[in-house]
Amino acid sequence: MKAIINGKIILKDEVLDGVALVYSNVIEGIVPVEMIPDDVQIIDAAGGYVAPGLIDLHIHGYLGHDVCDGEEASIRTISKGLLANGVTGFLPTTMTVSLPVIRKALEVCRSLKEESRTWDGSAILGCHAEGPFISESKKGAQDAEYILKPDASLVKEYSDIIKIITLAPETDTEDFAAIREICRDTDVVVSMGHTSADYETAMNSVQAGVKHATHLFNAMTPLTHRAPGVVGAALNSSVSCELIVDTYHVDKSLFDLVWRLKGRKLCFITDCLPAGGLPNGEYTLGGAKIVYQDNLCRLEDGTIAGSVLPMNLGVWNVYTNSEIPLYECVNCASLNPATAIGLDSRKGSLDVGKDADIIITDNKFNVQKTIIGGETRYEA
Length: 380
Known about the structure:
With 380 residues, this protein is α/β, with parallel strands linked by helices. It has helices at residues 72-82, 99-112, 152-157, 177-185, 199-208, 229-235, 255-262, 311-320, 326-331, 335-340, and strands at residues 2-5, 8-10, 15-16, 19-23, 27-32, 41-44, 49-52, 54-59, 61-62, 65-66, 87-94, 123-124, 127-130, 162-167, 189-192, 212-213, 240-244, 266-269, 281-285, 288-293, 296-299, 358-361, 367-372, 375-379. Helix 5 (199-208) crosses helix 6 (229-235).
């Protein structure tokens, strides 16, 4: 066993100081420092934070590699790079490209998922399929050429690896046949996103089984006083909501408001592109040219195309630009995402018995050490 001392331990409801976190491959307990057994290896947090490993539900790439490359080497590179950001589990995210490309990407992730539990990188918890069942008018950086009508059979074929499917509910049948079939026959979380639905359609789709909203505010009908849109439906229903917390996609003044409305249904995401972790320049996303400049990625026509945000800095962005307690900011990047995809019984917090997925950071949440399943995978 090992014990982390001299750290501020971030639990789901409070931050503790002056105690030790004891773990093996799971969290064993939190004890007074003087009660640590003699044979336990001591790790000094140097006065920083000790937090649960972060979980990213929506990430397209990192360090120049794209999930849609459909290559083992790309997934391995992305996974290893994420350790420096405190991400211990992630959903490699596909986008609206050709079906053969989507299938290849999903199959590669499926083949690597088990190995990823013990490899030198962040664990693959499943995949997020963002499209191809989206609205052309809200496609954002997605390619309209490859948009399809919702097809439950495709989702069911890959239901062992897909954790979230983003679709536009208004493109389904009037009675949401595909959504209902996916929800009836699989555990895949249906998320409304890249959608031009009105408020009523969005709310009806929630009744049909939609449980999540993809990057709230972005690529969906906005909230106005006479047309509440998908944003209004997401805020006024029980769905969990993603939020890109780079302060560019969503203004920081909205952080408090969204958290007050959604609470532990709020999930921070990066929506990170392959340009993440690299310098300014020109890159690609699903074959499209992306220009990365001043912390923002755009298509050649100026359309915002995702972020280059490290998850740990996203947590700190919200904490330093809101009144949200730090432990709740961490929940939004750990416990809440784990809950959204049904993994909260073993991941997302430092509760006794859960997997020992732990990060140690400095006092500005820069990651110093990343631990997965009790094994140190990264040290700064």
